[in-house]
UniProtKB/TrEMBL annotation, chain A:
Name of the protein in question: ABC transporter permease
Membrane topology according to the record: Multi-pass membrane protein
Classification lineage: Bacteria, Pseudomonadati, Pseudomonadota, Alphaproteobacteria, Hyphomicrobiales
Organism for this UniProt entry: Alsobacter metallidurans
Family membership noted in the UniProt record: Belongs to the binding-protein-dependent transport system permease family.
Listed InterPro entries: MetI-like, MetI-like_sf
Domain of life: Bacteria
UniProtKB/TrEMBL annotation, chain B:
UniProt cross-references to SMART domains, sorted A to Z: AAA
Protein origin, superkingdom: Bacteria
SUPFAM superfamilies reported in the protein's UniProt record: P-loop containing nucleoside triphosphate hydrolases
Gene3D superfamilies (UniProt xref): P-loop containing nucleotide triphosphate hydrolases (3.40.50.300)
Entry keywords, A to Z: ATP-binding, Nucleotide-binding, Transport
Annotated family: Belongs to the ABC transporter superfamily.
Annotated ranges, domain ABC transporter: 11-244
Protein name, per record: ABC transporter ATP-binding protein
Record PROSITE patterns: ABC_TRANSPORTER_1, ABC_TRANSPORTER_2
Presence of the UniProt keyword Transport in the record: yes
GO function terms (MF aspect): ATP binding; ATP hydrolysis activity
Family matches, as InterPro entries: AAA+_ATPase, ABC_transporter-like_ATP-bd, ABC_transporter-like_CS, ABC_transporter_ATP-bind, P-loop_NTPase
Amino acid sequence: MTTTAPTTATTPPPAPDSMIGAARITMRDQSGAGDHLGEVERKLGLLETLWDSGFVRKALLLVLLGVIWEIYGRALQNPLLFPTLSETFESMRDGVMSGVLPMRAWSSIKVLLMGYVAGVLLAAILTIAAINTRVGTDFLETMTAMFSPLPAIALLPLALIWFGLGNGSLVFILIHSVLWAVALNTHSGFRSVSQTMRMVGRNYGLRGLAYVFRILIPAAFPSILTGLKIGWAFAWRTLIAAELVFGVSSGQGGLGWYIFENRNLLDIPAVFAGLLTVIVIGLVVENLIFRTLERRTVLKWGMQN
Amino acid sequence: MNAPTPAQPLLDVSGVTLRYKTPGVLVTATERVSFSVNRSDRFVLLGPSGCGKSTLLKAVGGYLTPSEGSITIKGRKVTEPGADRMMVFQEFDQLLPWRTVLENVMFPLQVARRLGRKEAEEKARHALEKVNLTRAVDSYPHTLSGGMKQRVAIARGMAMEPDILLMDEPFAALDALTRRTCQDELLQLWEDTKFTVLFVTHSIAEAIKIGNRILLLSPHPGRVKAEVVDVDKVSPTDGTAGQLEKKIHELLFADEAAHAE
């Protein structure tokens, strides 16, 4: 233990001093110091507050880019190559009104969800096997090392032979694109759970699945969430690409097919509208769903900043 | 229920040798260590680093199996971790970050003692009140200071009313002032409920302050050097605590001094 005693006192003491042995304690006056009162906090102005919000800054940037697009489109005067923003919006509105665009989008999302959920479930089974057995670990490591670098779209020709022209093939390659990313991240998340936290869990007598679900999964949640996000992005890209290649199943294609179809019709504003829809759906999932999930979990828990 | 009689101590460690493997080497952490802890003891394992005191505590916790000797608690052999021996660790990440302070204390009550939600919450609130954390019950651990986190961990251990509380240098990572406050609080809690605690530390002063019995361990491999009893009879005001501290220091470092000469 160290105790420090002030030894020098130049100003007359405002409070009675005390002597302890040879050490002297001089009390300082804190109320009358007042030559300048330190500013503790100050409200920020409205503009400053707005500028500090990332959302406002990004929205402004988007508006600026939109204006540049519009000006360039109008200067070019060639909707076959590069339609203006307003033409794209118009085409998008028509697409939405006629119901074609929402239908295409829904058919994409439906297939995507099937593949995504199946991929995540398989990843869960693989990783739980991997943390409980050494063979499981070896299996997961070997499989991820082999298949993770293989682009899902490269499997499409094979998938078409196996599952035919339809959702089966799409789901197959979607599973492939989701599974390895999610499994890899989840597994590394499990492995980075601290020794202390594991010991706490075992101290409570938790074993097997209860231990996995009540300790390991929440403790590894930041990595799991990253895996889910990467898996989603992979799946979305893979799906649109795959739909460009074939896409029509029983007369109902997805967004990729919508883009491809309109390109063939030389309806370029509709192509742009399709692309914009792909972007919007991606943004919504990333910013609404995953952001909310993040805010309610890892950010609230202080496991990620 | 077989209440431990004076003849049968609460915790009995007899002839325990602990070994663990590091890549390529088999390390002997402790060799034939024996001691016994009675009900309401504040038993301190004291020794320099490398004397295997933490390893010994983990073996009592059931995380390690002795390669020789046996550990029994209330006559039952310790084979695996269990909530009858609640641990308090040194590390601040022993609280589950996805649960609030209250939920952290309730969780083991619910999963290990199978209490209902209401009963668990009642016990948890009571324990948190005792460590003066009533205001922080709904906070998440990452918003707490180190001292508060350790107090939550202690509350969590106490709420379970375990046979014995195992504390692995719980205050070692705290600053000096907070450490003193936490030590005082722990003693105050002990006055209230007289729980049994096995406490590991490398600080002689802390051992004298906390314990009523101290087991001195010597390093490489850990062996029992001496046992000090009635430690709570010495007092810091008349200088006896200081003398004891000096004596223990001499005992622990006698070998090194001999080597140095």
